[in-house]
Amino acid sequence: MNVMVNGEARELAANASIQDLLDALGFDGASLVVQKNDDIIEQADYAGTPLNDADQIELVRFVGGG
User: Fold this and answer.
1) Which of 13, 16, 45 minimizes the C-alpha distance to 29?
2) What is the pTM of this model?
3) 66 in a structural domain
């Protein structure tokens, strides 16, 4: 299956979840906001939220500073 992640095509297994995507990209998810097709996904739901072919995923990292 193909999904778009921050505008870049990614190939994933057919039964992949958001957590699978984050694991493949090396993110722990704690400092991210994940948006799937215009919906914000809660961190507790990452493992249970399936991805579908052509989904649009946006990953936004929190950055501290002062």
Assistant:
1) 45
2) 0.89
3) no
8 vs 5: CA distance, rounded Å: 5
pLDDT digits (tens, 9 = 90+) for 1-47: 999 999 999 999 999 999 999 999 999 877 899 999 999 999 999 99
Output DSSP code: residue 1. -
Domain extent for 41: 2-61
Domain count, the chain: 1
- Decide if pLDDT at 66 tops 70: no
Domain assignment present for residue 39? The answer is yes
**Could you tell me the sign of the dihedral formed by the alpha carbons of 22, 27, 28, 34, in that order?**
negative
Residue with token string 């936004």: 60
The one-letter code for the residue type at 21 is L
